[in-house]
Amino acid sequence: MCEPLEEKFGAWELFEEIWEKEGMDDWASISDKLDAFIKDSPFHDRLKLRADEKDNAKARTLRAKGNEMFHPKVKRYIEALKCYNESIAFSQKGTEDRAIAYANRSMICYELHRYEECLENIRLARDSNYPERFSHKLVKREEAVRKVLLATKDDRKDTKANGPIPKLSYNTRETLPQVAECLELCESDKFGRYVVTNRKLKAGDVVIIEQPFCRLLLDVYRCIRCDFCLKESIFTLIPCESCTVAMYCSNGCKTKALQQYHRYECPIIRDMWRIFTKIPTLSLRVITTAIATFDHNLQAMREHLRALNEKKINAFTMDWTQASPTDVYNTVHVLETNANVRTPKDRMARVFFAKIIQKLLIERTDLGKVFGNDFEMAELLDDLLLRHLQTSPVNMHSLNYMEYKPAQELYELENHASACFPLLSMLNHSCAPNVTRVTLHDGRCAVVVNRPIPKGGQLYDNYGMHHSLMPRKERQLALANQYCFLCKCEACVNNYPLYFDLPNIDCSPHILIDILAMHAELIIHNATKAAEVMPKLLRHLNDIGRLYPKKETCSCQELFLRSFQILYKPTSESAQYWKYCNP
Q1: Which of 37-41, 135-139, 507-511 has the highest mean pLDDT?
Q2: Among candidates 379, 403, 361, 381, which has minimal Cα distance to 272?
C-alpha cells in the first residue's frame, strides 16, 4: 500500500473540542455555534487545509526514496514502484522530474520481465521531455526489451483477461436481471425492508450479481490502482494533472472520472483524505456521481428531488432494463439514514462534517458558482451531504481482493475500495449469515448462499461481526455503534459460541470429507484444484447445513468460500512479486 497522506489534526478531533467546550444539552445552541464556527473561525488553520498543488521538490524526494528501494543491495522493487508513482503524481507535466520517474519505473519493469509495461514507460518518459543527456539509457533498454519480445513472441500469454465470472443459479426477473427471480423484497416493522426466497436455496447458489452505483478507491491504494476502474496498474499509472492524489490506468479512465465525479473532487480530495475517514469521502463520491446522473444540471436535480415520492421507490420492482442513471440514483437516495435513532453527538458530528465539506466545495470548485450565491441551492447541497453522511456508514460495502503469497502460505482479503449497492443494501445482518458477498473480477459483487435456506426464509448478510470470531457482547456493541440497532439474530438470541468452542457433529450418517486435506489442497491457490474440491464441499455443506452451528459446518463454509474466491475473485497482480515487498 502507499503511505497515508500526512496525519494531521482531523475533523473529528476538532468537533470533539467544540462539543466538549459547548456542552451536550442544547441541540439548537450547538447547531448555531457550529454554523458560527464554520463562518467566522479559522478552521482552515486548525485543520491545516490548503490547495493541492504539484511539487517538483516533493517529486524528487519521492524519486530518491524509490532509488534507495531499487538499489541492488535492497531490491524492494514494489516499494520502489510506489515511490516512483507518487513522484509522478507530484511532478508537473512535461518536467524532467516526471520523465525520469517514468524512466526509473521502466527499469523495474525490465527487472521483473514486464516488457510491455517497460516499453510503455519508455514512451511516457519520452513524451514527458526525458533529458537528452540520458537518452542513451532508454535506447539501450528499449533495444534489450524488443530483442526479448521478438525471441519470445510465440510464448507470450494474454495476461489482460479478467478471469471467469459466475452466473446466477436461477432465472432472473424480466425487469431485474441482477437478481434471481426467486427473491422478493418485503417490509415489516420488525425487519424494515428485507429479502426472502420463494423457493429452497442450496449452498453454492448465486442469487444476486450487482454493479455498484459508485466506488471509492481507498487512499492507501492511490499509487497502486486506477482511481476510476480500480484495476491494479502499479506499473503504468498516469496522474491527474491538477491534483496529487488520483492516478489512472489510461487516458480513457481519466476522462471518465473527470466527467463523472473528479471535476468536483479534484481540488479538495487531498484534504478530504487528510481530515476525514473513508465514510465522509464516500459520501462525497455518492453526491458527485449523483450530480453527473443529472447531466450536471443542479436546478433539475433540485426539482427532481423535491418532487420525489420516496415511499414509491423500490429497487426490486423498478424496471432496471429501462432505468436511467437518475432512476438508479433514486434507489440510492432513499437508503436508510437511521437519523431517528442516532445520538445527538453522532448527528451533530455529521452536521459539522457536512458544513466543512460544503464550505470546501463552494470555495474551491465550480459548484461554488451555483451553490454559493443561491440559498436554496446551498440548502440542497447541505441536505445531500447530511443525508449521505448518514446512509454511507449503514449501507455501503467494502470491495476486496485476495492477497496471496504462496511461499508464505499467506491468504488474506484486503479491502481496497468501498462501494454503494442499492440492492445489496436490502439484505439484513446476522452474526450467523446464510449468504456471503464476493467481489468479482469485473467489479460487480455476487451474493452466494453458504448454507441451505428454506422456502420463505430471509437472506442474511454479515456486516463484519461473525459469531465464530467475536463474542456476543462485543458484536452487539460494535453493531449498535455503527448501525444503530441491537442485534437479535439467531446467533445472538442463542449465544452461539466462538469457532473453537463449537460442538462437533457425528458425521457417520453423512458423506465424509477430509477438512484438513482439502485445506491443504486449497493452500496452493490453484483454480483447477478449487474447481475439483468445490462440488465435494457443496455436497457436504448441503447435507450438514441444517445442523448449524457446528464446527464441521463452519469449516466447510470457509473452505467453500475459499474455493469460490480462488475461482472468481481477483488476486493482486503484484502479489507474485511479494519477495520484493519486504526487506
Answers
A1: 135-139
A2: 361
What backbone phi and psi angles, to 5 degrees, belong to 435? -135, 160
Residues above pLDDT 70, as percent of the chain = 92
On whether the CB atoms of residues 563 and 515 are closer than 8 A, the answer is no
pLDDT in tens, 475-493: 999 999 889 899 999 999 9
Q: Residue 504: which residues within 8 A CB-CB, separation 6 or more?
A: 550, 551, 552
Rounded Cα–Cα distance for residues 277 and 275 (Å): 7
* d(C-alpha 578, C-alpha 583), whole Å: 11
User: Does the structure show a pLDDT above 70 at 17?
Assistant: yes
Q: Which residues of 538-556 are buried (b: 16+ CB within 10 A; e: fewer)?
A: bbbbbbbbeebbbbbbbbb
Q: What is the DSSP letter of 441?
A: T
SS3 206: strand
Instruction: Quickly state the pLDDT bin for 156 (edges 50, 70, 90).
Output: low
User: Phi first, then psi: what are they for 218, rounded to 5°?
Assistant: -65, 145
Question: Collapsing DSSP states into helix, strand and coil, what is residue 458?
Answer: strand
The amino acid at 280: P
Grid coordinates belonging to 1: 500500500
Q: How does pLDDT run across 457-477, given as a tens digit for each residue?
A: 999 999 999 999 999 999 999
> What residues form DSSP beta bridges with 524?
none
CA dihedral angle for residue 108, residue 110, residue 111, residue 114, rounded to 10 degrees: 90
Bond prior to 549 in cis (omega within 30° of 0): yes
What is the three-class DSSP state of 293?
A: helix
CA distance 494 to 374: 55
User: pTM, whole model, 2 decimals?
Assistant: 0.92
CA dist 549 → 9, 114, 150, 431, 560 (Å)? 45, 48, 58, 11, 16
Q: Look up residue 552 and give its amino acid.
A: E
Q: How confident is the model at residue 582 (pLDDT cuts 50, 70, 90)?
A: very low
Mean pLDDT value across the chain = 90
Q: 220: which 3 cell numbers?
A: 492507501
